[in-house]
């Protein structure tokens, strides 16, 4: 049961497969250059491939807690992304350079 729930969270949080779909919107709406978009893409890939901490957490916490945290982070991440692309919030900080 928890395996199925984890797969649904993974499908809902499919950043790796759809970054190319929303990166042009980030570039145009936020005024980022190609280097900044590339850095965001690399950070996205690194974030997806760091499996040590979630592996440790799986041994220490119950599955419902891990899935809840995953759902909250997915909602927050896509929520901020949606707010930025729809220009509801203006001028999100970009900490890696102002080129």
UniProtKB/TrEMBL annotation:
Source organism (scientific name): Salix viminalis (Common osier)
Predominant localisation class: membrane
Name of a matching Pfam family: Nodulin-like
Sorted UniProt keywords: Membrane, Transmembrane, Transmembrane helix
Topology in membrane: Multi-pass membrane protein
Name recorded for this polypeptide: MAJOR FACILITATOR SUPERFAMILY PROTEIN
Subcellular location: Membrane
Record carries keyword Membrane: yes
Domain annotation Nodulin-like: ranges: 4-96
Bilayer-crossing regions: 64-85
Record's GO cellular component terms: membrane
């Amino acid at each position: 049961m928890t395996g199925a729930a984890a797969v649904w969270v993974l499908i809902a949080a499919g950043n790796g497969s759809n970054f190319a779909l929303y990166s042009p919107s980030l570039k145009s709406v936020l005024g980022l250059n190609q280097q900044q978009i590339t850095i965001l893409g690399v950070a996205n890939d690194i974030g997806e491939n760091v499996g040590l901490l979630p592996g440790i957490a799986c041994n220490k916490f119950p599955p419902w807690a891990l899935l809840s945290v995953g759902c909250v982070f997915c909602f927050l991440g896509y929520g901020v992304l949606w707010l930025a692309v729809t220009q509801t919030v203006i001028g999100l900080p970009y900490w890696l350079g102002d080129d």
